[in-house]
Specification:
- The structure is a single chain.
- This protein has 9 helices and 8 strands.
- The chain is of the alpha/beta class.
- It has a single domain, classed as Ureohydrolase domain (Arginase, Chain A, 3-Layer(aba) Sandwich), CATH 3.40.800.10.
- Helix 8 links the parallel strand 7 and strand 8.
- Helix 3 crosses helix 4 and helix 8 packs parallel to helix 9.
- The chain starts with a strand and ends with a helix.
Length: 297
């Protein structure tokens, strides 16, 4: 497979330093070499955020931190992913916080009306700018993609994501206002407890069967897969921006992504929220690499 790796060096969406260094850190730890060793041909595109002083945090919006820079970077991610689609290449976005997914999702939604989004992570990321308790954009990505948040982030977006084509998998940290939005929009949600124990094969797991049932019901022909590394338990992956206990094992996540990859329906993959500044022992990077064999093997 011809893969365009978009190295999305972005941390302003989490407002926590470190994840902007994730793409280079994972490359140095051999992640791209692992993907190439599985028979794939790789080209890379690097997209970096600007270094800005702290006083710029609310320069463009009082409700969204670093709004202007996030929009500028995600627009460049959009262009890189759209360019990969145009060239017949598979886009693989390595971040960076989950703000990066705004760019890749825009490209997928614009190009494919028949795509489902499988959003694997511990958080729902469905706060609007009115409901967000933190003003951190990485928690607003899906609200923006479904037209429920700050319209400034709709640059380049020609088609909103239908909430019923969205499948949240592994969620276990959902704000009260987010839960209201999920119910109102009828978003599909498969909580983490239903995925735990999936194992490396994923066979017979009710969560995976539920995902595929939803995809068939929605008549989706493609899957945009977005992975927040924090879906794994901090015992296995502590080096993330916002860790949440009671998560998946690397084996569970391996089985989940392996089953999704085996469908042949994947059109784009995001790998986000790794923070190498918190990974002194390399444990989280090792967990990520083990999951990649399920995705690209």
């Amino acid at each position: 497979m011809d893969i365009t790796v978009v190295k999305a060096g972005l941390s302003y969406g989490a407002d926590i330093p470190g994840s902007e260094k994730a793409p280079d850190a994972l490359e140095q730890k051999g992640l791209l070499g692992t993907v190439a060793s599985l028979g794939h041909r790789i080209e890379t595109v690097s997209i970096l955020q600007s270094e800005l002083p702290d006083e710029h945090r609310f320069r463009d919006s009082l409700r969204v931190k670093w709004a202007g820079e996030i929009l500028e970077v995600t627009n460049r991610i959009y262009e890189a992913v759209d360019g990969a689609y145009e060239a017949g290449r598979f886009p693989f976005i390595i971040g960076g916080d989950q703000s990066a997914a705004l760019g890749s999702l825009k490209a997928t939604c614009n190009r494919y009306s028949d795509a489902a989004v499988v959003w694997i992570g511990s958080h729902a990321n469905m706060n609007s700018y009115q409901t967000s308790p933190s003003a951190n954009f990485h928690g607003m990505v899906l609200a923006s993609m479904t037209g429920l948040s700050d319209s400034r982030f709709e640059d380049n977006l020609q088609r909103f994501l239908n909430p019923r084509n969205l499948i949240l998998v592994g969620t276990r940290s959902v704000d009260e206002d987010e839960q209201k939005i999920l119910l109102e929009q009828k978003v599909n949600e498969i909580p983490c407890r239903k995925v735990i124990g999936c194992g490396a094969t994923g066979r017979g797991n009710s969560a995976i069967e539920s995902i595929m049932t939803i995809i068939r019901r929605r008549k989706a022909k493609r899957i945009h897969l977005s992975i927040d590394v924090s879906v794994m338990d901090p015992v296995f992956a502590p080096a993330v921006n916002v860790p949440v206990e009671d998560g998946l094992s690397p084996e569970d996540l391996y089985g989940l992504v392996r089953c999704l990859a085996s469908t042949g329906m994947l059109c784009c993959v995001d790998l986000l929220e790794y923070n190498p500044l918190r990974d002194e022992d390399g444990l989280t990077a090792a967990s990520i690499e083990s999951v990649m064999y399920g995705l690209w093997g």
